[in-house]
Amino acid sequence: MFLDIKLDKETPVYVQIKNYISDMILRGMLRSGEKLPSTRELSSILSISRNTVISAYEFLVDEGFIYMEKGKGAFVSDVKVDIQEKWNMDWSNQINDYARFAEDLDIIKHETKWKKGMISFKSIAPDESLFDVEEFKKAFLNRISIEGEKILNYGYAQGYRALIQYLFKYMSNKGVDTEEKDILITNGFTEGFNLILSSITEKGDKILCENPTHNTAIKIMKLHDLDIIGVPMEDDGVNISKLKDELSKNKFKLSYFIPSYHNPTGVVMSVEKRIELYKALKQYDIPIIEDGFNEELRYSGAHVAPIAALSGRGNGVIYIGSFSKILFPGIRIGWILADRKLIEYLESVKRSKNIHTSSLDQAIFYDYLSGGNFEKYIKKARKVYKEKYEFALRCAEKYIPYKKIFGEGGLHIFLELQELNSRDVLKECYRKGIVFTPGDIFYTDDNGYNTLRLGFSRVNKEDIEKGFKIIGEVIKSKT
Amino acid sequence: MFLDIKLDKETPVYVQIKNYISDMILRGMLRSGEKLPSTRELSSILSISRNTVISAYEFLVDEGFIYMEKGKGAFVSDVKVDIQEKWNMDWSNQINDYARFAEDLDIIKHETKWKKGMISFKSIAPDESLFDVEEFKKAFLNRISIEGEKILNYGYAQGYRALIQYLFKYMSNKGVDTEEKDILITNGFTEGFNLILSSITEKGDKILCENPTHNTAIKIMKLHDLDIIGVPMEDDGVNISKLKDELSKNKFKLSYFIPSYHNPTGVVMSVEKRIELYKALKQYDIPIIEDGFNEELRYSGAHVAPIAALSGRGNGVIYIGSFSKILFPGIRIGWILADRKLIEYLESVKRSKNIHTSSLDQAIFYDYLSGGNFEKYIKKARKVYKEKYEFALRCAEKYIPYKKIFGEGGLHIFLELQELNSRDVLKECYRKGIVFTPGDIFYTDDNGYNTLRLGFSRVNKEDIEKGFKIIGEVIKSKT
């Protein structure tokens, strides 16, 4: 029996011997009371050192698989008899509805998958070749030399002090009054949004948002069992009269908006609408969660203040910020700026979920930002993405028969087609080596079946043109 | 009015002007329709460049605070009238019971706080001066040069591939059969435990554990609204007959154990008890969550296999691992090893919570570990902590009148006193400059009022002796 052990080169030999024997016991091939070969015999059979076999046997004794009798040798334990029968837990029965729902809503698992050689317009992640890795490295080396041990040990749930201070200033430069406010560092937007919903909403609560809206936000709202009511988008932001209508008809617990480069439409909400929206929500005393998504990326035109800036010293707006849509998403850093009392609660919830966000990442990020690198990077990124956006727009206009192109920038183009299901288009495009995101996943209702989102941030111009052309041809063939 | 602007040196001047004016408007000091000084006037009043004032006014226009009339100048907007009244949301009314409970259970916020100059025995975080920062730096530089851009962009919810592969091998070297199992990388133990409870339990479900047990685990179980049933600890692990008794009386959904260097007692569960426990839980088909807490720190004696190793190809044990109790807690990396199907669900839940754990941290950690640094570090750390443990033990025996000292190692000493409330002892010690953790927070019931935990990992020998002496004196004075 022992001759069929196949020793590989990666695992320590004693571990392989041990695993082989315990496996034999668990499968019932070696029975309780059975005598094992002596360490001398086995070492000779396998041409390995006797010490290796001794180690393996010692482990097996510790794990209760075998026992030693003085002068007699090693025997298979009794005590393992009951363990021999494999524990076969039926996990599909153990999983609760929440986890099942999370899996159902996990589009990464269920949407059409990219395969090698395909052109993918699914991603709106930043183009990593723009990252300034050298500056990042410098920031790391600087921080690690200043406080290496400290940032590798436990930090604070609220976040790394210097980064919080930096972000206060950063938000204040956007016109936000930070008096009586506080900041909590989160693992990106996703965690921030989760923390807020976990701390404020109850199952069945109504939440008001744009329609369409960020698909991850929809997923998180659904996982919190919220009743999502979406208000249609127009070219300059949400339809205000419909928003007021919904406010008068329903009792909302919260609202969620993406005023700049709205995902997926790319629309920037006008100043007038920001003010109208703010006034309406304030009138009904419904907190606003403002998603600062890609605010930094505005290609053109003047600065537009976030809704949080309109609020002055008021405390009804919760701002979620994140650079990770354009810079270093791999390190997962975002923040919530809100009323100090609310942040106190969110901090405790955060601590209960994962203690704190990586101190190392926060420290590097702080060093990188405070060195003025972000401004340089954003200038470069804006230029590249603006050019790419304009190119993609021209390609879309040239090749794709659309009903409407939304928005005015961002890392993607959102299209509405004539009466045509974009999933049918996707199916055909997939065969021709092209994938994109069907627009229906951004809708809070059954609309949007004829929309699609084409992310171009990580696709080169040649492929943008080639891909859009194919998409256009498929659409033409179907109409 | 404008003369009282006090310009600081840190914020851009246009921002300060802008904030000053919007503040005046929001406070009603500047009324709708009121004319502002011309940009020329204001620049001369404040002795700043006219362009700076122009920038500030442009921002104010964008934010809707003021409007320009050609040839006439800048005026306070009408539209702000409704905004002027400060939005005063009452957040204490908005917070739900969950967040309130999380805040209540947040001992960091409510326990006696350390003040400068005090000796604190509260922490069981590793001593950061032992960290091998140079090797960590090398690991960073190596990873960043190999795949810098990649690890700064989005990664996978399941985790960084190479780290997962490393951990498979690592677990297999502990005797765990990884066939049909999978690994999910988490933000430390805390997130891992949260993900599991979120995915398996429902409100009111019964969970079986040791009593006392890890206070953070108790907090998380309570926040999941679980009915916690604790089984008393003995010197070689949980009381097995009482465990069987509870199993026969209750219907449990899950169980949670810390077999090595149990927190807070420091007890290492014997092999016999591990087997007995495994068999009992298997018989009732109740999944075991095994907390690999400080397993790596065993000072003495032979290797003891984790319960997951006893399970062979069986799938009833969910193992949560983390190095962060001894190494780099600041980067928050842990893992769950469990049945493949379960991990699939947990992966979706993880994605919905925060997309993924920092790719950068995972990549550095992988590089550090695979370079063989962990073995070197753990050898050093074990030696230092063992010596410190033995010293602390001698001090406890010499100075503190105790009823019982638990355990056989770890980064703390857990003491049971004669009939004396350790919170009374703490109150008195605090006045004398000493803090520690009262033991009751580790109990699942009302016991443990006469216990305390003395963490020594970050206290030097001199302070250990000094502190224990004072604690001993306080106890003597009370009995």
Polypeptide structure, described:
- Two copies of one chain form a homodimer.
- Chain A is α/β, with parallel strands linked by helices.
- Chain A has three domains: 2-84, Winged helix-like DNA-binding domain superfamily/Winged helix DNA-binding domain (Arc Repressor Mutant, subunit A, Orthogonal Bundle), CATH 1.10.10; 109-129 and 378-478, Alpha-Beta Complex (Aspartate Aminotransferase, domain 1), CATH 3.90.1150; 132-374, 3-Layer(aba) Sandwich (Aspartate Aminotransferase, domain 2), CATH 3.40.640.
- Chain A is 46% helix and 14% strand.
- Chain A is built from 19 helices and 16 strands.
- The first copy, chain A, has helices at 13-26, 39-46, 50-62, 81-84, 91-94, 97-104, 107-110, 133-152, 161-173, 188-200, 215-223, 240-249, 271-283, 307-310, 340-354, 359-370, 373-399, 422-431, 461-478; strands at 66-69, 73-76, 119-120, 181-186, 206-211, 227-234, 237-238, 254-257, 288-291, 317-322, 334-339, 404-405, 412-416, 434-435, 437-438, 451-455.
- In chain A, the strands form four sheets. Chain A has an eight-stranded mixed β-sheet, sandwiched between helices.
- In chain A, helix 1 crosses helix 3.
- Chain A starts with 12 loop residues before the first helix and ends with a helix.
- The mean pLDDT of chain A is 91.
- At the A-B interface, helix 1, helix 3, helix 5, helix 6 and helix 8 of A face helix 1, helix 3, helix 5, helix 6 and helix 8 of B.
**Helical coverage of chain A, percent range:** 40-55%
* Strand proportion of chain A: 5-15%
Provide the gyration radius of chain A in Å.
29 Å
Q: Mind summarizing the main beta sheet of chain A?
A: 8 strands, mixed
Find the CATH superfamily of the largest domain in chain A: Type I PLP-dependent aspartate aminotransferase-like (Major domain)
